[in-house]
Design a protein that fits this description.
By secondary structure, the chain is α/β, with parallel strands linked by helices. The chain is built from 21 helices and ten strands. It has three domains: 340 residues, no CATH class; 131 residues, no CATH class; 86 residues, Topoisomerase I, Chain A, domain 4. The model has no long low-confidence stretch (mean pLDDT 95).
């Protein structure tokens, strides 16, 4: 067995907000843990490079916003900074003496007990003399960094303008310039495209040789797609493959049992989605590989090797070692993503102290699916966050909305020729005025205005903690924090060390003490039923027939999902017998609840 080919960990830390995982590579990559950083806010990345350079004693040359292509250059500079610092950390670890408390020992202590390299490490601890020296040498040669992957939310692709107000060419849009910043960096890593297909962005990847195989078949830069179902994976995968662009990994995320933006399916549950990937995995790999190589051949570029592997991972709502192990083994997955729980681990993420305390004290009801995002996509939120408090106070003072300095989510042209953000003070003033003219009934106005006023400034709120935890006050003293944990975080209460959290993931210990936590499959089902209830309660559509068809399809997908889970309980062991009995009862209860839901009668 060649141990170098075995990755250190079976999990990764997904992107969380604009700033929560921005420093994560500096905290965990040297221990072989992969993570994802957002590269959407170039000003925040520049601030972080300045702050961390000062703290680490690294020379810093600023990149001013007036510099040509400053956005891409800032992104490249921050990613190169991460690359260089992690390499220095790794070199330092490799030179250390094996001794309790040293980072080289921590590296191996964090591994799963079943990992072949962990077994080799444990053997080394029992030996002395030349035998120990030999194994120490093997262990040092194994040490490898985790991946520093980047995230681009494909829908965040605002066009930009020069100082005179002239629209810049398409390649200077937010998403395309972010991709350019990544492509030109030193990283040998992946870009995670999330939030659906952006043809212009996907096509732009063709401009960079790093996304194509070299003469040995190796890819310097890879593409990961975050998807919510198999159909989306196939469509997007084919689109890219026909351009000669290989999707190295499909990262499946629960539609509702996740953090950040929630892209709900039409009631298709995670279990059946994973089953479809499992059943069609070989076909998917072959289809995309053939299409990709045909395109590469036509372009006169080197081909992908026949053994190029398509990875499939899952994330969203995983909370126990048993769930993690079951997902990887039963669905033959290559790994899992653990996001929200790491918000409680200061050694891994950047959460300001005030928000951290709010998370510790939060009740289950404090985690909710909000209308806060200006993108018009539902957004997992915390009711007690300082950003929510700020939003409400602004409304009370008749100053609803944000000053909107960063403008990353400026897409609305309802009242203006140039796009503005629906969370901005400018938009909300115009929208509320228009609604007052339209709705004379105060009750009707209040009901309609509630979702409009729910919009919040995510650009400032999701990035501020990265600076605040480094002792720096964000520009204009905008310290209100938005945090976007998944519902699963309600079952984690307390601050944990990196060692404790990883020990929990691998089943070495349990840090979750809520015995009432439902299995992740049950929880997601409950979230979908609650989501459908809300849709029914708020349905004031002009085309009730279309809505009835939507509800009918949604309910049928949920029925099939419940049936799938019940069959799984009978055929395989999801968990202990007591848990299986409890889950069976919960699925039956959910089915009864589902059948009681109906579209309200329209007069």
């Amino acid at each position: 067995m060649i141990i170098q080919n075995i990755k250190p960990h079976s999990f990764h830390i997904p992107v969380m907000g604009l700033g929560y995982t921005l420093e994560t590579p500096l905290k965990v990559t040297q221990f072989g843990i992969s993570s994802v950083v957002s590269i959407m806010d170039d000003a925040l990345l520049e601030d972080m490079r300045r702050v961390k350079s000062r703290l680490l004693g690294v020379p810093y040359l600023p990149i001013e916003s007036k510099v040509a292509d400053s956005r891409a250059k800032r992104i490249t500079a921050y990613l190169d900074f991460l690359h260089d610092q992690v390499n220095l950390q790794l070199d330092k670890i490799k030179k250390q003496v094996f001794e309790k408390g040293q980072e080289i020992d921590t590296y191996f202590e964090l591994l799963d007990e079943l990992h072949p390299v962990k077994k080799l490490y444990n053997l080394m601890l029992t030996l002395g003399g030349s035998a120990r020296v030999l194994i120490e040498s093997q262990l040092r040669s194994y040490i490898q960094a985790g991946k520093i992957d980047v995230n681009i939310m494909t829908k965040v692709d605002k066009l930009n303008y020069d100082e005179k107000g002239n629209e810049l060419p398409r390649e200077f849009s937010d998403a395309l310039s972010a991709l350019r910043g990544f492509a030109q960096s030193k990283l040998n890593a992946s870009v995670v495209f999330s939030a659906g297909m952006n043809p212009a962005l996907y096509g732009y990847a063709e401009q960079f040789d790093a996304f194509f195989p070299d003469q040995t078949g190796n890819l310097e830069k890879r593409i990961i797609l975050k998807v919510s179902d198999y159909r989306s994976a196939l469509i997007q995968g084919k689109f890219l493959a026909k351009k000669g662009l290989w999707v190295s990994e499909f990262r499946i995320e629960s539609g509702l049992n996740c953090g950040g933006h929630a892209f709900a399916t039409d009631g298709i549950l995670l279990g059946p989605i994973l089953e479809e990937f499992k059943q069609n995995r070989k076909t998917l790999q072959q289809t995309l590989l053939e299409a990709c190589n045909q395109a590469l051949l036509a372009k006169g570029k080197p081909l992908l090797l026949s053994d190029e592997k398509l990875l499939i991972t899952v994330q969203g709502g995983i909370g126990t070692a048993q769930e993690d192990k079951f997902l990887r083994q039963h669905y033959q997955l290559d790994g899992t993503g653990w996001g929200s729980p790491f918000l409680m681990v200061p050694e891994a993420t950047n959460v300001d102290e005030d928000t951290l305390q709010k998370l510790i004290q939060a009740k289950k009801s404090d985690y909710y699916l909000s209308h806060a995002s200006p993108l018009g996509v539902r957004f997992n939120n915390l009711r007690t966050s300082s950003s929510e408090n700020q939003r409400k106070k602004r409304i009370e003072k008749d100053r609803a909305g944000s000053p909107c300095y960063k403008k990353f989510l400026s897409f609305n042209t309802e009242f203006t020729e140039k796009p503005i953000c629906t969370a901005s003070r400018q938009y909300l003033n115009l929208k509320i005025k228009a609604m007052k003219d339209r709705f004379s009934d105060p009750q009707e106005f209040d009901k309609q205005a509630e979702n409009v006023l729910a919009k919040d400034c995510l650009c400032e709120g999701l990035g501020a903690p990265a600076l605040m935890t480094n002792g720096v006050t964000p520009a204009r003293n905008l310290t209100a924090t938005t945090i976007c944990p998944g519902p699963n975080l309600a079952y984690f209460s307390g601050v944990f060390s990196l060692k404790e959290m990883i020990g929990h993931i691998y089943g070495k210990l349990t840090i979750m003490h809520d015995s009432h936590r439902p299995h992740m499959f049950v929880k997601e089902l409950q979230l979908y039923i609650d989501y459908l209830k809300e849709e029914l309660e708020n349905s004031l559509l002009e085309k009730p027939t279309k809505f009835e068809n939507y509800v009918s399809k949604f309910k049928e997908n949920l029925r099939q999902g419940i049936g799938y889970y019940i069959n799984q309980l009978e055929e395989i062991s999801l968990d202990a017998d007591e848990m299986v009995s409890k889950m069976h009862s919960q699925f039956q209860k959910a089915l009864r609840e589902l059948e009681e839901l109906a579209v309200p009668a329209y007069s």
